[in-house]
Amino acid sequence: MAAALEIAGLSLRFGGLTALNALDLALKPGEAIGLIGPNGSGKTSLFNVLTGHHAPDAGSVRLDGNETAGLPPPRIAALGVARTFQNLRLLRRLSVYENLRAARHARAPWREALWQTPAARRREQDAMISLLALFGLASKTHEMPEALTLVEMRQLEIARVLAAAPKLVLLDEPAAGMTPAETDRIIRAIAEHLLPGRSAIVIEHKVQLVTALCPRIAVLDAGRKIADGPAAAVLGQGEVRRSYFGAASC
Ligand SMILES: Nc1ncnc2c1ncn2[C@@H]1O[C@H](COP(=O)(O)OP(=O)(O)OP(=O)(O)O)[C@@H](O)[C@H]1O
Protein backbone atom coordinates (compact mmCIF):
# COMPACT_ATOMS: atom_id res chain seq x y z
CA MET A 1 0.00 0.00 0.00
CA ALA A 2 1.40 3.47 -0.91
CA ALA A 3 2.35 5.58 2.11
CA ALA A 4 0.07 8.49 3.06
CA LEU A 5 3.09 10.26 4.52
CA GLU A 6 6.70 9.46 3.75
CA ILE A 7 9.48 11.32 5.56
CA ALA A 8 13.00 10.51 4.40
CA GLY A 9 16.38 11.75 5.64
CA LEU A 10 14.80 14.78 7.30
CA SER A 11 17.21 17.10 9.09
CA LEU A 12 16.61 20.45 10.74
CA ARG A 13 19.26 22.58 12.38
CA PHE A 14 19.07 25.74 14.46
CA GLY A 15 22.61 27.16 14.20
CA GLY A 16 24.82 24.49 15.78
CA LEU A 17 21.89 22.56 17.24
CA THR A 18 20.48 19.58 15.33
CA ALA A 19 16.78 19.33 16.12
CA LEU A 20 16.04 16.55 13.57
CA ASN A 21 18.74 14.20 12.41
CA ALA A 22 18.21 12.17 9.20
CA LEU A 23 14.71 11.14 10.24
CA ASP A 24 12.78 8.49 8.29
CA LEU A 25 9.11 7.80 9.07
CA ALA A 26 6.25 6.50 6.94
CA LEU A 27 2.53 6.29 7.69
CA LYS A 28 0.00 4.16 5.86
CA PRO A 29 -3.37 5.70 4.97
CA GLY A 30 -5.56 5.73 8.09
CA GLU A 31 -2.68 4.88 10.41
CA ALA A 32 -2.29 6.65 13.79
CA ILE A 33 1.18 6.74 15.28
CA GLY A 34 2.25 8.00 18.71
CA LEU A 35 5.40 10.14 18.78
CA ILE A 36 7.16 10.22 22.11
CA GLY A 37 10.56 11.30 23.39
CA PRO A 38 12.15 13.42 26.11
CA ASN A 39 11.87 17.22 26.15
CA GLY A 40 13.84 18.78 23.32
CA SER A 41 14.00 15.54 21.28
CA GLY A 42 12.52 17.21 18.17
CA LYS A 43 8.82 16.24 18.26
CA THR A 44 7.42 19.76 17.82
CA SER A 45 10.17 20.59 15.31
CA LEU A 46 8.94 17.68 13.20
CA PHE A 47 5.37 19.07 13.30
CA ASN A 48 6.74 22.50 12.36
CA VAL A 49 8.42 21.02 9.28
CA LEU A 50 5.32 19.01 8.35
CA THR A 51 3.15 22.14 8.50
CA GLY A 52 5.66 24.37 6.68
CA HIS A 53 6.60 26.53 9.65
CA HIS A 54 10.22 25.40 9.30
CA ALA A 55 11.98 24.51 6.04
CA PRO A 56 14.23 21.47 6.61
CA ASP A 57 17.98 21.57 5.92
CA ALA A 58 17.82 18.19 4.21
CA GLY A 59 15.40 15.41 3.35
CA SER A 60 11.94 15.08 1.91
CA VAL A 61 8.32 14.94 3.08
CA ARG A 62 5.83 13.37 0.72
CA LEU A 63 2.11 13.62 1.36
CA ASP A 64 0.21 11.24 -0.92
CA GLY A 65 3.30 11.30 -3.13
CA ASN A 66 3.54 15.13 -3.34
CA GLU A 67 6.66 16.80 -1.98
CA THR A 68 5.71 19.32 0.71
CA ALA A 69 9.05 20.09 2.42
CA GLY A 70 9.70 23.83 2.24
CA LEU A 71 6.21 24.78 1.00
CA PRO A 72 4.57 27.67 2.88
CA PRO A 73 2.01 26.77 5.59
CA PRO A 74 -1.13 27.79 3.61
CA ARG A 75 -0.12 25.52 0.70
CA ILE A 76 0.44 22.60 3.06
CA ALA A 77 -2.87 23.27 4.87
CA ALA A 78 -4.60 23.27 1.47
CA LEU A 79 -3.07 19.86 0.76
CA GLY A 80 -4.80 18.51 3.89
CA VAL A 81 -2.50 18.84 6.90
CA ALA A 82 -4.02 20.22 10.12
CA ARG A 83 -2.62 20.41 13.63
CA THR A 84 -3.30 21.33 17.22
CA PHE A 85 -0.80 23.12 19.43
CA GLN A 86 0.56 22.20 22.83
CA ASN A 87 -0.20 25.76 23.98
CA LEU A 88 -3.66 26.23 22.49
CA ARG A 89 -3.81 28.61 19.51
CA LEU A 90 -7.47 29.60 19.41
CA LEU A 91 -8.37 32.94 17.83
CA ARG A 92 -9.16 34.84 21.00
CA ARG A 93 -11.09 37.70 19.39
CA LEU A 94 -13.43 35.36 17.53
CA SER A 95 -16.38 33.42 18.93
CA VAL A 96 -16.38 29.63 19.15
CA TYR A 97 -18.39 29.45 15.91
CA GLU A 98 -16.13 31.92 14.11
CA ASN A 99 -13.07 29.97 15.24
CA LEU A 100 -14.48 26.89 13.57
CA ARG A 101 -15.42 28.74 10.40
CA ALA A 102 -11.94 30.29 10.12
CA ALA A 103 -10.41 26.81 10.39
CA ARG A 104 -12.65 25.51 7.63
CA HIS A 105 -11.71 28.35 5.32
CA ALA A 106 -8.01 27.81 5.97
CA ARG A 107 -8.37 24.83 3.64
CA ALA A 108 -11.32 25.81 1.44
CA PRO A 109 -10.51 28.09 -1.51
CA TRP A 110 -10.85 31.79 -0.55
CA ARG A 111 -13.32 32.33 -3.39
CA GLU A 112 -15.65 29.89 -1.69
CA ALA A 113 -15.65 32.02 1.47
CA LEU A 114 -16.22 35.26 -0.42
CA TRP A 115 -18.81 34.12 -2.93
CA GLN A 116 -21.02 31.85 -0.87
CA THR A 117 -24.69 31.76 -1.88
CA PRO A 118 -27.16 32.09 1.02
CA ALA A 119 -27.98 28.38 0.68
CA ALA A 120 -24.29 27.41 0.81
CA ARG A 121 -23.78 29.67 3.83
CA ARG A 122 -26.73 27.98 5.60
CA ARG A 123 -25.35 24.51 4.78
CA GLU A 124 -22.00 25.53 6.17
CA GLN A 125 -23.63 26.94 9.31
CA ASP A 126 -25.51 23.68 9.88
CA ALA A 127 -22.34 21.65 9.37
CA MET A 128 -20.39 23.82 11.83
CA ILE A 129 -23.13 23.63 14.47
CA SER A 130 -23.29 19.82 14.10
CA LEU A 131 -19.54 19.71 14.54
CA LEU A 132 -19.74 21.80 17.72
CA ALA A 133 -22.48 19.49 19.00
CA LEU A 134 -20.23 16.45 18.41
CA PHE A 135 -17.75 17.98 20.82
CA GLY A 136 -20.32 19.06 23.42
CA LEU A 137 -19.97 22.73 22.48
CA ALA A 138 -23.42 23.40 20.97
CA SER A 139 -24.41 25.67 23.87
CA LYS A 140 -21.14 27.63 23.54
CA THR A 141 -21.49 28.65 19.88
CA HIS A 142 -21.46 32.39 20.59
CA GLU A 143 -19.07 32.35 23.55
CA MET A 144 -15.57 33.73 23.29
CA PRO A 145 -12.78 31.16 23.83
CA GLU A 146 -11.79 32.70 27.19
CA ALA A 147 -15.19 31.63 28.60
CA LEU A 148 -14.40 27.94 27.93
CA THR A 149 -12.85 25.43 30.31
CA LEU A 150 -9.50 23.87 29.36
CA VAL A 151 -11.22 20.70 28.14
CA GLU A 152 -13.67 22.73 26.06
CA MET A 153 -10.80 24.73 24.54
CA ARG A 154 -9.02 21.53 23.58
CA GLN A 155 -12.29 20.10 22.21
CA LEU A 156 -12.65 23.27 20.13
CA GLU A 157 -9.10 22.90 18.83
CA ILE A 158 -9.89 19.37 17.75
CA ALA A 159 -13.18 20.49 16.16
CA ARG A 160 -11.15 23.13 14.27
CA VAL A 161 -8.88 20.42 12.92
CA LEU A 162 -11.92 18.41 11.84
CA ALA A 163 -13.50 21.48 10.20
CA ALA A 164 -10.47 21.71 7.91
CA ALA A 165 -11.29 18.18 6.62
CA PRO A 166 -7.64 17.12 6.75
CA LYS A 167 -5.98 13.96 5.43
CA LEU A 168 -3.17 14.14 7.96
CA VAL A 169 -3.78 15.19 11.55
CA LEU A 170 -1.00 16.31 13.88
CA LEU A 171 -1.95 16.47 17.56
CA ASP A 172 0.54 18.10 19.94
CA GLU A 173 -0.18 17.00 23.52
CA PRO A 174 -3.98 17.09 23.19
CA ALA A 175 -4.46 16.20 26.87
CA ALA A 176 -1.88 18.58 28.39
CA GLY A 177 -3.01 19.84 31.78
CA MET A 178 -5.99 17.47 32.02
CA THR A 179 -7.06 15.18 34.85
CA PRO A 180 -7.32 11.41 34.09
CA ALA A 181 -11.13 11.71 33.70
CA GLU A 182 -10.77 14.67 31.32
CA THR A 183 -8.06 12.78 29.43
CA ASP A 184 -10.53 9.90 28.98
CA ARG A 185 -13.07 12.32 27.47
CA ILE A 186 -10.59 13.75 25.02
CA ILE A 187 -9.39 10.25 24.06
CA ARG A 188 -13.00 9.29 23.24
CA ALA A 189 -13.57 12.47 21.20
CA ILE A 190 -10.38 11.92 19.18
CA ALA A 191 -11.00 8.21 18.64
CA GLU A 192 -14.65 8.62 17.60
CA HIS A 193 -14.55 11.77 15.52
CA LEU A 194 -11.05 12.63 14.41
CA LEU A 195 -9.06 9.50 13.66
CA PRO A 196 -11.43 7.41 11.51
CA GLY A 197 -10.36 7.62 7.87
CA ARG A 198 -7.30 9.82 8.54
CA SER A 199 -3.61 9.40 9.14
CA ALA A 200 -2.40 10.93 12.38
CA ILE A 201 0.68 11.62 14.44
CA VAL A 202 0.03 12.16 18.14
CA ILE A 203 2.65 13.71 20.41
CA GLU A 204 1.80 13.00 24.02
CA HIS A 205 3.64 12.39 27.25
CA LYS A 206 0.66 10.51 28.73
CA VAL A 207 1.13 6.84 27.93
CA GLN A 208 -2.61 6.33 28.71
CA LEU A 209 -3.50 8.49 25.70
CA VAL A 210 -0.84 7.28 23.29
CA THR A 211 -1.58 3.60 23.84
CA ALA A 212 -5.36 4.15 23.66
CA LEU A 213 -5.15 5.90 20.29
CA CYS A 214 -2.02 4.60 18.57
CA PRO A 215 -1.24 0.96 17.82
CA ARG A 216 2.24 2.06 16.74
CA ILE A 217 4.78 4.28 18.49
CA ALA A 218 7.96 5.99 17.27
CA VAL A 219 10.46 7.39 19.73
CA LEU A 220 12.75 10.38 19.16
CA ASP A 221 15.88 11.12 21.12
CA ALA A 222 18.06 14.14 20.24
CA GLY A 223 16.39 14.38 16.82
CA ARG A 224 16.97 10.71 15.93
CA LYS A 225 14.40 7.94 15.75
CA ILE A 226 15.52 5.32 18.29
CA ALA A 227 12.50 2.99 18.07
CA ASP A 228 9.43 2.43 15.88
CA GLY A 229 6.96 -0.43 16.09
CA PRO A 230 3.94 -1.88 17.91
CA ALA A 231 3.19 0.20 21.03
CA ALA A 232 3.68 -2.53 23.65
CA ALA A 233 6.97 -3.72 22.13
CA VAL A 234 8.38 -0.19 21.83
CA LEU A 235 7.40 0.81 25.38
CA GLY A 236 9.07 -2.36 26.68
CA GLN A 237 12.46 -1.62 25.10
CA GLY A 238 15.25 -0.82 27.56
CA GLU A 239 16.64 2.07 25.49
CA VAL A 240 13.19 3.67 25.28
CA ARG A 241 12.56 3.28 28.98
CA ARG A 242 15.96 4.83 29.80
CA SER A 243 15.56 7.71 27.33
CA TYR A 244 11.91 8.49 27.94
CA PHE A 245 11.00 7.45 31.44
CA GLY A 246 14.45 7.93 33.02
CA ALA A 247 16.77 5.39 34.57
CA ALA A 248 14.59 5.01 37.68
CA SER A 249 11.88 3.15 35.80
CA CYS A 250 14.18 0.62 34.09
N1 LIG B 1 12.90 28.16 16.88
C1 LIG B 1 13.94 27.55 17.48
N2 LIG B 1 15.15 28.13 17.56
C2 LIG B 1 16.21 27.53 18.14
N3 LIG B 1 16.15 26.29 18.69
C3 LIG B 1 14.95 25.65 18.66
C4 LIG B 1 13.79 26.24 18.05
N4 LIG B 1 12.76 25.37 18.16
C5 LIG B 1 13.24 24.29 18.80
N5 LIG B 1 14.56 24.46 19.10
C6 LIG B 1 15.43 23.49 19.76
O1 LIG B 1 15.34 22.28 19.02
C7 LIG B 1 15.36 21.16 19.90
C8 LIG B 1 14.11 20.34 19.66
O2 LIG B 1 13.00 21.08 20.19
P1 LIG B 1 11.49 20.60 20.07
O3 LIG B 1 10.64 21.71 20.60
O4 LIG B 1 11.24 20.14 18.71
O5 LIG B 1 11.48 19.36 21.06
P2 LIG B 1 10.24 18.57 21.68
O6 LIG B 1 10.59 17.14 21.62
O7 LIG B 1 8.99 19.02 21.02
O8 LIG B 1 10.27 19.08 23.19
P3 LIG B 1 9.04 19.24 24.26
O9 LIG B 1 8.61 17.85 24.62
O10 LIG B 1 9.70 19.96 25.39
O11 LIG B 1 7.98 20.07 23.58
C9 LIG B 1 15.48 21.70 21.31
O12 LIG B 1 16.85 21.69 21.69
C10 LIG B 1 14.97 23.13 21.18
O13 LIG B 1 15.57 23.99 22.14
Automatic annotation (TrEMBL):
SUPFAM superfamilies tied to this protein: P-loop containing nucleoside triphosphate hydrolases (SSF52540)
GO cellular component, one term: plasma membrane
A single BP term in Gene Ontology: D-alanine transmembrane transport
Lineage: superkingdom: Bacteria
UniProt xrefs under CDD domains: ABC_Mj1267_LivG_branched
Keywords attached to this entry: ATP-binding, Nucleotide-binding, Transport
Domain ABC transporter: 5-247
Molecular function, one GO term: ATP hydrolysis activity
Keyword Metal-binding: no
Pfam families, A to Z: ABC_tran (PF00005)
The name this protein goes by in its record: ABC transporter ATP-binding protein
Organism name: Palleronia pontilimi
